Predict the structure.
Amino acid sequence: MDKKQALISGALASLVALGLSAGAQADDKAAKEKCYGVAKAGKNDCASPSGSHSCAGQAKTDNDPNEWKYVAKGTCEKMGGNTQPGKK
């Protein structure tokens, strides 16, 4: 196999791997839901819907009803959380 064929083969293998990885991430996300009110300070998964910040890990207090974490689908309310954010 010459260099050009090896490069093309490597690129195709990378694309296939990325596609499989994306599919696994989509399946993983489908098995989870956002759970508001269960994140500990500094342990939230992403932005607050209240607009107080736009990144993960910036929750200021434990169990804020506007902070969320991904949890296994169907477990949020059992943990004392809610699948909808609290009032702004």
